Amino acid sequence: MTTAIGEKLLSAEDYFALPDDGCHKELVRGRLVTMNMPGFEHGVVCGNVYFVLREFVSARDLGHVVCNDTGVLTERDPDTVRGADVAYYSYDRVPRGQRPTGYAGVSPELVIEVLSPDDRWAKVLRKVSEYLEAGVLVVCVVSPGDRRLFVYRPDSADREFREPDELTLPELSPDFRVPVRRLFE
């Protein structure tokens, strides 16, 4: 469902200032798009992804890892704010000790989206494109249903990983490696 308040397109700032009405939504080209809350499996996989990434980033003091549909501004005029399941901002993009109020104002280096059963690939791929065009270096889409992971980068071929594979993300760190199966445990 798409709505605009008084037919006026919302800015990212307007969207952030809205009171919480308990509905899950994103801002897409100035309009609110309401979505269903994801289910249990989605939460388990998001938690696993966050844990693996946070553990790695914290041990090396690399930056910030955020989760829980943290807003990422992907377009301006009209504004789009997407809710990333998990994202990573290096200290180069959001300096140590800073925790912006509202949206970061810069794109994260890494976004990880976990598919929900009602997600459609056409919409997911549009979201991936938005992230990459906004300056995200790598987007991972995790598919719990078939236990696969897809990696998208702006200037290289897409890659698919399955449970026996090892995921590497040199954009995060040259030594980042994780067995894909850990994300689904």
What does this structure look like?
The protein is of the alpha+beta class. The radius of gyration is 16 Å and the shape is globular. The protein has a single domain, classed as Alpha-Beta Complex (tt1808, chain A).
Set down the secondary structure blueprint.
Layout: E1 2-3, H1 12-17, E2 24-28, E3 31-35, H2 40-60, E4 63-75, E5 80-90, E6 110-114, H3 121-133, E7 138-143, E8 148-153, E9 156-162, E10 166-168, E11 177-179
Parallel strand pairs: 6-7
Antiparallel strand pairs: 1-3, 2-3, 4-5, 5-6, 7-8, 8-9, 10-11
Descriptive terms for the model:
single chain; three-stranded antiparallel sheet; globular; tt1808, chain A
CATH architecture: Alpha-Beta Complex
Largest β-sheet summary? 6 strands, mixed
**What is the end-to-end distance?**
34 Å
Shape: globular
Can you count the beta strands?
Answer: 11
Give me the strand/helix succession.
Answer: EHEEHEEEHEEEEE
Q: Determine the structural class based on helices, strands and strand pairing.
A: alpha+beta
Poorly predicted spans: none
Rg measurement, Å: 16 Å
Kindly state the percentage of residues in helix. Answer: 10-25%
Number of domains: 1
